[in-house]
Design brief:
Number of helices: 8
Order of helices and strands: EEEHEEHEHHHEHEHEEH
Helix content: 25-40%
Radius of gyration: 18 Å
Number of strands: 10
Strand order of the largest sheet: 6-7-8-3-9-10
Strand content: 25-35%
Shape: globular
């Protein structure tokens, strides 16, 4: 068993294989890393190298064939469903496409409040206050809770997605190419917002991108993936220099 120490996430000797037409394909091979409180670990690499598979496994959406993924001291793929559901309060995800990740049939208030189901029954007053707080944290007005996603710009939609991730007050947010679908003029606003939220709330990020300029701007440490392996790790400035 691995030791949690002070890490939010600790991955050790993690391996994932997929069966494709009776042939096993290695997607991630013997990967190890840790993410500390307040740290942004950048995961960089070309398309198809296994970044998103690694992200899904860190969130316990997939299980490794071998190795362990530990979150706040507990090995995720060994937990029962009820316990895993409780652990999910502490980890959320921001997806690449703000157009596809928000249900167009739901109002902003309902979208942002979806993760509150992880808390069970809460009073309407607390529910309303948490939604308002999450929207204010990302620079949106609580008065916009009755609007729908199509009434917002791409950058505003990604702010809504970040508010949804923040509402459970997680320790970790996995951001999978969170600005690649946005206009360049909007990307900096969203990235700066994410950095401000990290500093205000002590968040840890697993930040996935193939854009090295964004990785350098956002992260404290970097892991470079190639063909399912982490081939280089280190502090961001040291690695880039």
């Amino acid at each position: 068993m691995i030791s949690s120490n002070e890490s939010i996430v600790r991955v050790e000797d993690f391996t994932v294989d997929y069966l494709d037409r009776r042939k096993w394909i290695n997607i991630a091979n013997r990967i190890s890393f840790a993410i500390e409180p307040g740290e942004t670990l950048g995961l960089a690499g070309e398309s198809g190298c296994g970044k998103s598979t690694l992200a899904r496994t860190v969130l316990a959406l997939e299980s490794p064939q071998s190795g362990e993924v530990c979150f706040q001291g507990k090995v995720l793929h060994t937990l029962k469903n009820d316990e895993l559901r409780r652990m999910r309060r502490g980890m959320q995800m921001v997806f690449q496409d703000p157009y596809g990740s928000l249900d167009p049939r739901l109002s902003v208030g309902k979208i942002v409040s979806e993760p509150l189901t992880l808390f069970g029954e809460i009073s309407p007053k607390i529910h309303q206050d948490l939604v308002a707080e999450a929207l204010e944290n990302v620079g949106l007005s609580p008065s916009e809770t009755n609007k729908y996603p199509h009434e917002f710009s791409g950058g505003q939609r990604q702010r809504i997605a970040i508010a949804r991730a923040l509402i459970t007050r997680p320790a970790l947010i996995v951001a999978d190419e969170p600005v690649s679908a946005l206009d360049v003029s909007v990307q900096a606003q969203v990235l700066n917002l994410m950095m401000d939220l990290r500093d205000q709330h002590g968040l840890a990020y697993l930040f996935i991108s193939h854009d090295l300029s964004i990785v350098r701007h956002m992260t404290t440490n970097v892991a470079v993936m190639y063909a399912g392996r982490i081939v280089e790790t280190g502090p961001t400035e040291v690695l880039f220099d």
